[in-house]
Amino acid sequence: MKLISAAACIIILAVIINQGVIHTARAEDACREGDRRVCGSDVGACESGRSVCKEGEWGECEGGVGPKDSETCGNSLDDNCDGAVDENCFPWLSFILVGMGILFICIGMIYIQKEKGERMLREGVGKD
């Protein structure tokens, strides 16, 4: 039983390393002094920056715009750069606003029909 458990642990560890969960030095991580690369993200309101190779390692990402900690509600931007615009920003508010719009349209239609009916009565339309 211990042999099976040890084998399972080795397989799981190999999968984790292969998926990059445990960071190991890879060829694409190596760099030459002065090399530059794009870093960061262009998703949402974020803008990518540039990183420069110093002493064989990539430096900090500079010049980009990173994600904010949270969304600024109502600005129609993806402030936290996760691919969703204005999430967690009172979604019920939009339902209330749509409901109020429909209510005002209905009230307007009722008023128009009432006015039309009163005008028809005044003019005697529909009297036989």
Structural notes for this entry:
The chain has helices spanning 2-18, 91-123, and strands spanning 36-39, 49-54, 57-58. With 128 residues, it is mainly alpha-helical. The protein folds into two domains: 32-89, no CATH class; 90-128. Strands 1-2-3 form a three-stranded antiparallel beta sheet, with no helix packed on it. 2% of the residues are buried. The model is unreliable at 20-25 (pLDDT under 50).
Summarize the helices and strands and which ones pair or pack.
Blueprint: H1 2-18, E1 36-39, E2 49-54, E3 57-58, H2 91-123
Antiparallel strand pairs: 1-2, 2-3
Summarize, please.
With 128 residues, this protein is mainly α. The chain is built from two helices and three strands.
Distance between the termini: 99 Å
Helix content: 25-40%
Helical segment tally?
A: 2
Estimate the global geometry from the Cα principal axes: rod-shaped
* Helix/sheet category: mainly alpha
The share of residues in extended strands comes to: 5-15%
Largest sheet: 3 strands, antiparallel
- Number-wise, the strands total 3
What attributes characterize this protein structure?
2 domains, 3-stranded antiparallel beta sheet, 128 residues, single chain, mainly alpha
